[in-house]
TrEMBL record:
Membrane-spanning intervals of the chain: none
UniProt-recorded name of the protein: Integration host factor subunit beta
Subunit: Heterodimer of an alpha and a beta chain.
HAMAP family: IHF_beta
Keyword DNA-binding included in the entry's annotation: yes
Organism: Pseudohalocynthiibacter aestuariivivens
Function: This protein is one of the two subunits of integration host factor, a specific DNA-binding protein that functions in genetic recombination as well as in transcriptional and translational control.
Family from the record: Belongs to the bacterial histone-like protein family.
Keywords: DNA recombination, DNA-binding, Transcription, Transcription regulation, Translation regulation
Protein's UniProt keywords contain Lyase: no
Pfam families recorded: Bac_DNA_binding (PF00216)
Organism taxonomic ancestry: Bacteria, Pseudomonadati, Pseudomonadota, Alphaproteobacteria, Rhodobacterales
Entry-linked PANTHER family: DNA-BINDING PROTEIN HU, INTEGRATION HOST FACTOR SUBUNIT BETA
Length: 93
């Protein structure tokens, strides 16, 4: 599902809301999650999962095309851990 499909589904299920308002709500939620993660905070949506940021240390990597060693700088990457409810539903429990 892409963002526009999510907006459309929420708008269809809530006919009392305008689609532009639903789109603004969805965008605000995503922006707040992004902002919190950019600040290094953890975002937990109960039953769904938790978004966090993990640090990857600097290391020596390899260029797969040439085999040459290259330096890879430290970086921060997003990490998502599923919640128990989501895991259970995926596994048919």
């Amino acid at each position: 599902m892409i963002r526009s499909e999510l907006v459309q589904k929420i708008a269809d299920e809530n006919p009392h809301l305008y689609q532009r308002d639903v789109e603004r709500i969805v965008n605000t939620i995503f922006e707040e999650i992004i902002e919190a993660m950019a600040n290094g905070d953890r975002v937990e949506l109960r039953g769904f999962g938790a978004f966090s940021v993990k640090k990857r240390d600097a290391r020596i990597g390899r260029n797969p095309r040439t085999g040459e060693s290259v330096s890879v700088e430290e970086k921060y990457v997003p990490f998502f851990k599923t919640g128990k409810l989501l895991r259970d539903r995926l596994n048919g429990k």
